[in-house]
Design brief:
Length: 201
């Protein structure tokens, strides 16, 4: 599953792209987004900052004491009807703007970053869901589906890439059946850039 993506544009630039209102003034966002860190999302016609990943409570096996929650940042499309995701999928769908997403490839301990972009678009949206949480406030998760043929050389899953305004609308405000129908592998071209950048550090 994907644990890194890139967005170098600020809230105002993203708002123009999606014809939305920028509500992120003063928000702390980063250009390379990791689970548990803030990222920008499009919700109800506005650009908002939320934490990437739904908090999952954890306890220590040794002591039984609570641990820091784990951010669950990816949601499999075939699991949207399960208890953890169902309410958010039915009631709170959002767009996640990004320029590229990354996957780790290579030997364990020596993995490098492979970046995936759309060659015909500098910015695009993938499907997401969000919810309020006691731990982190508003948080979001990225919807994943089977990899297309190009992506399968890197990973067996990929984000649900939305093709443009019509799919943006259907994902955010359509019925659950409409939203589910677009949770399919992207059928356009991808650019896969295998870099020497170390995955960690």
């Amino acid at each position: 599953m994907f644990n890194l993506y890139r967005l170098t544009k600020n809230g105002g630039e993203v708002a123009q792209w999606f014809d939305a209102v920028d509500t992120t003034a003063g928000a702390n966002v980063v250009e390379q987004v990791y689970p548990g860190y803030p990222g920008l999302v499009v919700v109800d016609g506005g650009i908002r900052s939320m934490v990437w990943g739904f908090p999952l409570a954890q306890t220590s096996r040794k002591t039984g004491r609570p641990l820091k929650p784990k951010p669950v940042n990816n949601t499999r499309a075939d699991k949207l009807d399960t208890f953890f995701w169902r309410d958010s999928f039915e009631e709170r769908r959002c767009l996640i703007p990004l320029e590229a997403f990354a996957e780790a490839e290579g030997e364990r301990g020596k993995m490098t970053r492979t970046w995936i972009t759309l060659p015909d678009r500098e910015l695009f949206a993938v499907a997401g869901i969000w919810r309020e949480s006691e731990e982190w406030g508003r948080s979001y998760s990225m919807i994943m589906t089977d990899a297309n043929q190009q992506m399968s050389s890197v990973h067996d899953r990929m984000p649900v890439v939305l093709r443009g305004p019509e799919q943006w609308r259907r994902w955010q405000s359509g019925s659950t059946e409409e939203a589910r129908s677009i949770c399919i592998p992207y059928d356009g071209e991808l650019r896969i850039d295998r870099t020497p950048e170390r995955w960690a550090g």
